[in-house]
Amino acid sequence: MNRQAGRTQRKNGIRSPEPVSVKERGRGNARRLLLISGVKLDISLQAENGHLTGHHSNEVNLLDSKASQGELGWISNPSHGWEEISGVDEHYTPIRTFQVCNVMEYSQNNWLRTNWIPRNSAQKIYVELKFTLRDCNSIPLVLGTCKETFNLYYMETEEDQGDQFWEHQFSKIDTIAADESFTQTDLGDRILKLNTEVREVGPVTKKGFYLAFQDVGACVALVSVRVYFKKCPFTVRNLATFPDTVPTDTQALVEVRGSCVNNSREEEPPRMYCSTEGEWLVPIGKCLCNIGYEVRGVVCQACRPGFYKSSPGNLRCSKCPPHSYTHLEGSVHCACEKNYFRSELDPASMACTRPPSAPGNVISVINETSVILDWSWPADLGGRKDVTFNVVCKRCWAGQRQCEPCRGAVRFLPRPTGLSNTTVTVTDLLAHTNYTFEIEAQNGVSALAPAHRQFAAVSITTNQAAPSPVAVIRKDRTSRNSISLSWLEPERPNGIILDYEVKFYEKQEQETSYTILRAKGTNVTLNGLKPDTVYLLQIRARTAAGYGASSRKFEFETSPDSFSISSENSQVVLIAISSAVAIILLAVVVYLLLGRFCGYSKSKHPDEKRLPFGNGHLRLPGIRTYVDPHTYEDPSQAVHEFAKELEASCIAIDKVVGAGEFGEVCSGRLKQPSKKETSVAIKTLKAGYTETQRRDFLSEASIMGQFDHPNIIRLEGVVTRSKPVMIVTEYMENGSLDSFLRRHDAQFTVIQLVGMLRGIASGMKYLSDMGYVHRDLAARNILVNSNLVCKVSDFGLSRVLEDDPEAAYTTRGGKIPIRWTAPEAIAYRKFTSASDAWSYGIVLWEVMSYGERPYWEMSNQDVIKAVDEGYRLPPPMDCPAALYQLMLDCWQKDRNNRPKFDQIVSILDKLIRNPSSLKIIANAAPSPENLLLDRTSADIATFRSMGDWLESMQTLPCKDIFNGASYSSCNTLAKTSAEIYLSEVRPAATCPEWEPSMGITTL
Q1: pLDDT average, residue stretch 205-216
Q2: From CA 40, how far away is CA 675, in angstroms rounded?
């Protein structure tokens, strides 16, 4: 197959003086040895050289000689060359053929030219020839003159040139030879052997072209000539239509953009590639049927009535769920039947539901001024599971139908609305009062129903009740032998107070001997007491229903001598003493501040040397100190002091994201009144907990509630008055830092990582300033939000040391590995901010290694031994030398040499402000036999040169002094003793920014 680049041209410069159309010539010629007319061409039975004879759908014919019913009118030159005759094909269909057989004469040059063929849009054309050829050996006396080949030519033109015919203007395509030729025997059997040859031509660029056939002495018959080009035909793939596309003449694929069929949309732009062979390849992207339409073959068809489709996609339409319908085609949802509803949160696939019926079998149990209400579930839940109950309290008047909502301090346990259980306790009611309680059942569609409320009502009358306890007792006067007291009437007397019982005794006797007095009013004087003695006292009121509960114990003390002080005089004395103490304290503070202002300071940073003054007033910084909740006698008091109590109805749980020893961890939403709804994380306390477990669970909230810092996890509140008990914190979208780094391995810049580390250090500085020791600082306990802000978490677990060498210390939440724990904490149980600094160094290593496990698969015992022998973790890959130096400083064996968290924050701030200092990479690599580095060599030898180390430590002014003292390499300096260094180098070096904790800590 020859392309245009390899074609040869015949340029003989001779034009036939008489170009003759074949149709003008006669039929008879005695010299013709090839006769096709009347001979059957058995195409169907012969192999035709292995070529298929049928036409493909991707082929577009430009010329097909078999399709012509009349004479073709091609040009023959010379006139006695090619001859057009009639024949029949294998189906006995008349066809026009051309033949030539001038084998007896030398130097044959017979040309046959087609009519002008328009190119259309083709760039590459194909010529298919079907012909028969006589075997020269079967013809006698033609040796030297008979040929068994002929030549194929073409010529491009912009228009039809009519009968003009110049041989030299044609370009040769190929020489055509027969794979099979026929003999005299085949001619006698009237079956000829047909050959099929296809040649490519291209690229063609002009509007049309001619084909020409040159005979040089063969006995050949052209049975048919077909000229065509290939295209990628119109097709539909993935619900996208692709038009007819003509490929280019090059080997490149043509990208074609598809169009979505009607009633569909793109999910990803549909594309396909058209090859040079007219075949579609590599379908990319697809279309999705719109809502209300489903895939039917290659089209999107509207959903039938009674069916719907609420989301785009190529799924089938769904049948309407129960109690819903649609009468239209192409429905996106089904309407609910009468008296049935669907809430906004219900998916379209959910059946329509209705409000529940009223609860049944309401039972009330009255106990003085409280009542327990119990009821059964509604007979009809409305087809939903989210049924809750609301209890409405109304106070009514006897003999009247008039009622009003309950006011005052009526309490519902657990709450009046959103009840999931069928019981509630109502307390603090008034005695001898009529009440009506309405219990209403609701579900997710109750608010949509126009009908009246469905509730069951019960009316009760409270009993006579004893008074509530006396809340406040005041000491009016004290003497050596007496105390005068007064008090307020109980908040709920529940009738007429008849009298009060006053019980008192010496504190040291613990009620083994006590005295009881009765008072008609709200005051009493206790006489006959011992001087300088502490007494405990309780008071209770009595009505016709009996005595109420005793007040809490109040403590009073008699005077040690004979003088007495009234309450008014005592207040004056206290005010005078307080004023004097305040003046003395203020004088001391001013004196100390003036001393600092005059130049005396132990501050390590310039910005700490002076406190700010303004407008002649001293501004004292606010100081907060951490309070251990375990010091409270009642841990619940610590929870309520430091944590906000939330209503359970404000919290919606979306899904469970994890589980722990105490219960599940969920994600959800918090919607508080007049506040925007926020995403939160919710820790729940599992059912069946013990009081110890509840106390340990809530201790974390007591701790978190004391912290307020952008890098400390924020406590939103707690739920303790209903079950389950919950701790609600802000939601951190990216989860724990170690998992987050592993998911995004090598995706952050060094500056981004240093920014994360700076946030962690800032949070730890805040905790250290408050006096809180974390004890479990690790990447797994750092949470990351959507803005890559890192926040310290996990505060609530008390730690109990044990002897297991694989645990180091445990918590009530499980064992904690020792890989993050400082050596002194493991050996001597010394947990301080310095041990937290060691842990921070491990976190720094975790961050720079993108969440790798510290010490890899080494056992805990091996880690303890290696650290004790001075070995340290090697620098992570591509870790800046300055950051690895900070790690080594955090891993100082002597905890007093480790940097404080304010120093760590300062060092990281300097690195962020000077990014070029992060370009020096620590190059220390452990040997294959030992994964860890010796601490004495790791400190300095991690740097390629002394200059690199000095630059990373911000000590470039000292470079010349170090070189002058013969410390030109890091290895030399690392092997120098501390005494020689301090005596020879340090006195000569004026390096104010350099401290031992910043670098050569082993010296």
Answers
A1: 94
A2: 95
Cα separation, 941 vs 580, whole angstroms = 62
Decide: residue 13, CB within 10 A, 0-12 exposed, 13-18 middle, 19+ buried: exposed
Q: Give 901-949 pLDDT, tens digit per residue.
A: 999 999 999 998 888 899 999 875 554 445 676 655 555 545 555 555 5
Tell me the C-alpha distance between 754 and 910, whole Å: 11
How far is the CA of 929 from the CAs of 112, 256, 555, in angstroms? 87, 59, 72
Instruction: Decide: 845 and 777 in contact? Cβ < 8 Å.
Output: no
Q: Which amino acid is at 487?
A: W
874-910 burial by CB neighbour count: b if 16+ within 10 A, else e?
bbbeebbbbbbbbbbbbbbbebeebbebbbbbbbbee
Burial class (CB in 10 A: 0-12, 13-18, 19+), 488: exposed
Q: Cβ neighbours of residue 135 under 8 Å, at least 6 residues apart? A: 148, 181, 182, 183
For residue 939, indicate whether it is catalytic: no
Q: What is the pLDDT of residues 741-753, one digit of tens each?
A: 999 999 999 988 9
Which amino acids are annotated as binding site for ATP, given as ranges?
657-665, 683
What is the number of other CB atoms lying within 10 angstroms of the CB of residue 45?
9
Q: How high is the pLDDT of residue 19? A: 38
Structure tokens at 920: 């020096």
Q: What is the pLDDT of residue 928?
A: 41
Largest alpha-carbon pair distance within the chain? 168
Q: How far is CA 546 from CA 431, 466, 514, 516, 549, in A?
A: 13, 6, 21, 17, 10
Q: Distance between CA atoms of 717 and 699, rounded to whole angstroms?
A: 13
pLDDT at 54 over 70: no
* Residue 824 vs residue 431, higher pLDDT: 824
Is 768 in contact with 901 (CB distance < 8 Å)?
Answer: yes
Where do runs of H (alpha helix) occur along 921-984?
A: 935-941, 946-952, 959-964, 970-974, 978-980
Q: How confident is the model at residue 583 (pLDDT cuts 50, 70, 90)?
A: confident
669: left (phi over 0), alpha (psi -120 to 50) or beta: beta
The model's pLDDT over 867-887, given as tens digits with 9 standing for 90+, comes to 999 999 999 999 999 999 999
CA nearest 702: which of 645, 643, 764? 643
Closest CA relative to residue 259, chosen from 279, 237, 278, 282: 237
Structure token pair of residue 878: 């591509």
pLDDT digits (tens, 9 = 90+) for 12-41: 332 333 333 333 333 333 334 444 444 444
Q: How far is CA 885 from CA 115, 923, 941, in A?
A: 88, 12, 10
**Bridge pairing between strands 403-405 and 534-543:** unpaired
In 598-674 the beta strands, taken as DSSP E runs, fall at 613-614, 617-618, 651-659, 664-670
Task: Please identify which of the residues 174, 249, 776, 794 carries the catalytic annotation.
Answer: 776
Reading the block at residue 21, the tokens are 């159309």
| Average pLDDT of the residues in 439-443 | 91
pTM across the whole model = 0.40
Three-class secondary structure of residue 467 per DSSP: coil
Q: Which residues contact 849 (CB under 8 A, 6 or more apart)?
A: 876, 877, 879
Q: Please give the Cα distance from 127 to 208 (Å, whole number).
A: 14
Residues 6+ apart with CB under 8 A from 495: 431, 432, 464, 465, 467, 543, 544, 545
| Helix or strand holding residue 759 (H, E) | helix 750-769
What would the two tokens of residue 224 be? 């048919």
Q: Do residues 939 and 1001 touch, judged by C-beta distance below 8 A?
A: yes
Q: SS3 for 626?
A: coil
